Automatic annotation (TrEMBL):
SMART domains: Aamy. Residues 40-531 form the Glycosyl hydrolase family 13 catalytic domain. The keyword Transcription regulation does not apply. This is Glycoside hydrolase family 13 protein. It comes from Mucilaginibacter pankratovii. Keywords: Glycosidase, Hydrolase, Signal.
Length: 613
């Protein structure tokens, strides 16, 4: 393996539509999820397809919490300097402004770009929350059962229609213009042979949620008082306000749904036995059915759910939830967010959630973190053997069926973007922003970072589990931890203002030119095509052949085919440009004198000068 020059043998593929499942056992992941190429969309920052529905101040106000849009507030320009201050932002703290910024992304923008996603090779969409909510992130729901009014074509009309409902009675629920546009999106996604899942947090609501508003008004007389973790109600006979409740991780704008039947200790980062309030649960199940089978036909509904902060809810609820979901749609996919056992060193063990009675997969940060320490240049390096051992440890504690269904996340709305994560040497996720670490690099990465990331991406698309792409990574975007990964996407038809390279730090400003990176897009597209054209990279077993120093070799194989993947990290930064990343079909090809032949397949050998930036 030593002294190989940088090359990647790329096997090209035509797009093929995924086969539909005919039956999915209750305890198994749906087959379609194993071949998925996931694309995660943050709707407010994906694309503004309809400027007429842009948010207004009243759409983002949360009066009970004292959070009112600043004077002069307006929707931000899509192409402005992310670290700049526009109009109403002048003189205000950058992080405070982030809470109020809106860019107008909506469902029409997603519809307009479905062809773009299909051209990239995406087969499954993971939508960050779409439910009606005042924030940009939408985890603070006003209504679980409606799409956010500003994501649809008629916010004013939708609000009037919602006001006619009894939100506690599903028989009165209406279909708003935003709801209908979402169902159109589902239909268009399915027409393309793609899948779509929604993101929900059943652990908490927002303070504008209809049931919480009733609690605020009626206190102990509210029929929804038992829905929430309320510690004390206001005493009308005293001048003070004794009302107290539990918010998620202490955040008062996110009141927690009440936990019941808790039979084991409840510790952050650990699973526990328990359930949630029965009234809230009944409402959640009604919302679940609404989106899985909107007209009573599951074929016209979404294809599953991503479940936020899943460790905060007891396992009993999740077992009931899986039964309800699979009752409605047998091949629906459930992926849970479980993350930190002990911050910032230990990630949670996914085992309790993956036996077949709860989730089909988790967001598999557990596989990304060691990969970063192997492929990136950090203060916590892993050699090839350590990387191999960590991957095998993570896979071996999962049922084999679930290994292939894992959502292999590398970056999300909650992490630094990949380029920035590779550009910095810090511990994963720890002080990964300029507020906690003024020396954290947030500008355009150096050339070595691009080379290292490209090697990692080869691994991502040849490894076990379903690859996931976060909103705009294929465009070459960079950004620190939240809020920086949530920049508006760098679409090629836009011209962007230069971005402050040294972010919000004091001193003389430097600037980077930003915009769509065609070479990065082409790299993602090429790797997606390789994976889709070679099912062995989806369903094949994996065997490590060599793991020594910076050299790693593994093969993916089944009864019909074998592909071996070679990596050499040691040459990065030298004339080899990319180190080595080689894919070889050993069953259908042959190797002579160091020259790789893939005669039965269409192949191309790319030299370093052809693929560097």
């Amino acid at each position: 393996m030593k002294n190989y020059t940088a090359m990647l043998i790329c096997l090209f593929a035509a797009f093929t539509t995924q086969a539909q499942d005919t039956a999915t056992p209750f305890d198994k992941a749906p087959e379609w999820s194993k071949s998925a190429i996931w694309y995660q969309i943050f709707p407010e920052r994906f694309r503004n397809g309809d400027s007429k529905n842009n948010p207004r101040p009243e759409n983002i106000n949360i009066p009970p919490m004292g959070q009112i849009a600043p004077e002069g507030w307006a929707v931000n320009q899509w192409t402005e300097n992310w670290y700049g201050q526009q109009g109403w932002e002048q003189g205000r703290d950058f992080n405070d402004n982030m809470y109020y910024r809106r860019y107008g992304g909506d469902l029409q923008g997603i519809l307009d770009k479905l062809d773009y996603l299909q051209n990239l090779g995406v087969t499954a969409l993971f939508m960050n929350p779409l439910n009606d909510a005042p924030s940009a992130h939408k985890y603070d729901a006003r209504h679980y059962h409606h799409i956010d009014v500003n994501f649809g074509p008629d916010p004013e009309g939708d609000n009037k229609l919602i006001a006619t409902e009894n939100p506690a009675d599903p028989a009165t629920w209406q279909w708003t213009a935003a709801d209908k546009l979402f169902l159109k999106l589902v239909k268009e996604v399915h027409k393309r042979g793609m899948r779509i899942i929604m993101d929900y947090s059943w652990n908490h609501t927002g303070v504008m949620f209809w049931a919480w508003q009733d609690v605020l008004k009626n206190q102990s007389h509210s029929p929804y008082k038992d829905w929430y973790e309320i510690r004390s109600f206001d005493d009308s006979n005293t001048p003070g306000d004794e009302f107290a409740y539990t918010g998620w991780v202490g955040v008062s704008s996110l009141p927690e749904i009440r936990k019941v039947d808790v039979a084991t200790p409840r510790v952050n980062g650990q699973p526990y036995e328990g359930n949630i309030n029965e009234g809230a649960k009944k409402h959640i199940f009604a919302v679940t059915e609404r989106w899985l089978a909107p007209d009573g036909n599951a074929a016209n509904g979404i294809d599953g759910f991503r479940l936020d902060v899943a460790d905060q809810i007891g396992l009993g609820f999740w077992r009931d939830f899986r039964r309800e979901v699979r009752r409605i749609k047998h091949d629906a996919y459930l992926v849970g967010e479980i993350w930190w056992d002990t911050w910032p060193d230990t990630l949670m063990d996914p085992t309790p959630y993956t036996h077949g009675d709860i989730f089909d997969a988790v967001m598999f940060y557990q596989a990304y973190r060691p990969a970063r320490y192997f492929f990136a240049k950090t203060d916590f390096p892993l050699d090839a053997l350590q990387f191999k051992n960590e991957l095998e440890h993570q896979w071996n504690r999962l049922p084999e069926d679930k290994r292939y269904a894992m959502m292999n996340v590398s970056s999300t709305h909650d992490t630094p973007r990949l380029l920035t994560d590779f550009y910095n040497t810090n511990k994963y996720k720890f002080q990964a922003n300029p507020r906690e670490n003024p020396n954290y690099h947030t500008g355009k990465p150096d050339e070595e970072t691009y080379k290292r990331l490209r090697l990692y991406l080869v691994h991502l698309f040849t490894s076990i589990g379903a690859p996931q792409i976060w909103n705009g990574e294929e465009m070459g975007m960079w950004g620190a931890d939240d809020p920086d990964p949530r920049k508006p996407l760098w679409w090629p038809d836009y011209q962007f203002a230069d971005e402050t390279r040294n972010n919000i730090q004091p001193g003389e400003k430097e600037y980077d030119q930003v915009g769509f990176n065609q070479q990065t897009f082409d790299w993602y597209k090429k790797l997606i095509a390789i994976r889709k054209d070679n099912p062995v990279l989806v369903n094949g077993k994996i065997e490590f052949i060599l793991a020594e120093g910076g050299e790693l070799i593994y093969r993916r194989y089944n009864d019909n085919k074998e592909i071996t993947v070679y990596f050499n990290n040691t040459a990065i930064g030298q004339d080899y440009h990319l180190g080595s990343a080689i894919l070889v079909d050993l069953l259908n090809g042959k190797r002579e004198s160091g020259i790789l032949h893939l005669e039965p397949l269409q192949a191309a050998i790319l030299k370093p000068e052809m693929i560097t930036y």
